[in-house]
Structure formats: C-alpha cells, structure tokens
Write a structure and sequence with these properties.
The chain is mostly helical and 333 residues long. It has helices spanning 6-21, 25-40, 45-65, 76-91, 98-120, 125-145, 147-150, 175-196, 199-209, 211-216, 221-247, 257-270, 276-295, 300-314, 316-332.
Length: 333
Amino acid sequence: MSASPPGVLAAALAERLGQRARWRPIEIAFWVAAVASVFLLPGKHIILAEIAILALFALSLDLILGYAGIISLGHAAFFGFGAYCAGLFAKHHLINEPVLALGAAGLAAAALGFVTSFLVLRGSDLTRLMVTLGVALMLREIANRFDELTGGADGLQGVGIAPVLGSFAFDITGHVAYVYALAVLAILLVLARRLVHSPFGLSLRSVKGNALRASAIGIPVNARLVAIYTVAAAYAGIAGALLTQTTAFCSLDVFSFERSADLLLVLIIGGTGYLYGGLIGAVIFKLMQDWLATMTPQYWQFWIGLLLVAIVLVGRERMSRWLDAARGLVRLR
C-alpha cells in the first residue's frame, strides 16, 4: 500500500482545520446573547464590563494552560503591567486615544512576557509556578517602591481617559465601558480562534501532549512555548489596560496573588482547552460572586469553594455526559 502524496495530505489537513475552525451554532448563540445584553440589561453594564475584562484575562491564561500546558500562579504580572501602562499613558498624555493606548499596553506586556518566558519555561512545573509568582511579586514591589510614579499603595490617581475613538466618552453607568470591553473581547477571541485552529495551534497541542515526541518530529518546542507565552502576556496586558481605562484608576491590587488565583478558579469552573471555558467561567464566577456577596457578604467564598469541590468530586467528564443525556431528552421531545 503506497503512501499518500504530500499534496493530498496537506489538502486533507487544510480541510480538517477548516472544519474545526467553523463557527458552531452554540458559539453564535453565545455572541447573540452577549450583544442582546447590551440592549436588554442596561442596568447591569458595570458588572458586565467586569465580566468581559475577566473573560479576556481568563482567555489569556487558557492560551498557555489549555493549549500549551504551562501553569502560572503569577499571570497577574502581565495584567498589572498593562494596567499601569495604560494609566501612565493617560495620566501623562503620552497616548490620549484609548484604543491606541490599549494596543501599546498590550505590546508592552508582550515584551515583558517575551523577556520572562526564558525564565518561566526552564525547569519543571513547580519551578514555573514559583517563577511566575516571583515575577508578579517583584513587579508589585517595584510599583510600590516607585510611588512618585505609580502612586504606591494609594494607587495611580488623576487618570483621565479620553473618549473612545474621540467620540464615545466613558459614562458613570458603564454603557460605553461594556460595549468597548465586549468589542475588544470579541476581536481578540476571533484572533485566538484563528491561532489555535492553525497548524501552530496543532503543534502546541502536540507539545502539551508529549514535548519529547514533538521535538523528535521536528517541532521547535521552546520557540512555540515562547511564542504562545508572549501572545498570552499581550492578551493579559490588554485586559489590565481595559480595567484601568474603564475605571480610570489603577492600584497595586492588579498584581495581587488573589487575582491570579481567581483566574485559576474561573478556568476550573469553565474548563480549559476550548477558549470558551474562560468566558463561561468568568460569567458564572462573577455572577455568583455578586449574588453571594449580596446574600452572605461574609461567606461568599465558602459557597464558591463548595462549588469547586463539587466539580472535583463529580468530575467534569461525568457532568458532560449528564449534559449530553439532557440534550438527547430535549431532542426526543
């Protein structure tokens, strides 16, 4: 039996990638609901903007955790770096246009991610955990020490954000903030879909599955990991810049360990390795946090922890089978 010609294999691979990249009905429904929330939930735009920013932050971590297997306890380093860059750009009138400042903050975070990636990618998973946490703690201390520039423990104050595209000024009700954050999230998700459904994305999955085997078949493992780590840092930096622009404030909290830990909780709730896990997890986590904080202000963390314990005990695969069975019953009816 003769082997297939390289051209046939390339065509089959292109067709397979094209099928994987097609938009599914559930994805379209998700974004229809998101756009509808702009008009149907005008009183919830402040928390919805927070959800969109958290979803983008979670998406950035999913790119390295779900597709490359790089776990991080200090992903807030890039979030905070982008947040302070956007705040300083606005405060000192270096870049007045929010969209341009957003891109510049993302590039700055990407540069930080590229430089630190050579440290993070060395050693075992435990080493990576400690190095990522160390980078975040180091940046937090730098921001605290140079208080004449960053405001230190008091935060970066006096940040004036110009209207988006020179026409849409941020309002106290959060309408512009939500539409702005949602639009940025949608654009970056589309780019992430193209990335993970490309041959580059397939090579990342191969590296995550077995780095030694991937190297044996000619995949440049370290270069792939550095590239995706840099991209994820840019996404996190843009999320941080969005937070500063929509709140006109930035504090040391953007570098906190709790922010990175909450991000891991979001991905545990939503799942990793399919992009929408971070988005779904952000919606559930933020709405639960808001509702539980209203119902039991002192114990809301207990109930979220209980949900996580239930997910671990039941198992995500078993929950998926239950959902599939429910869908089958709906179709039968």
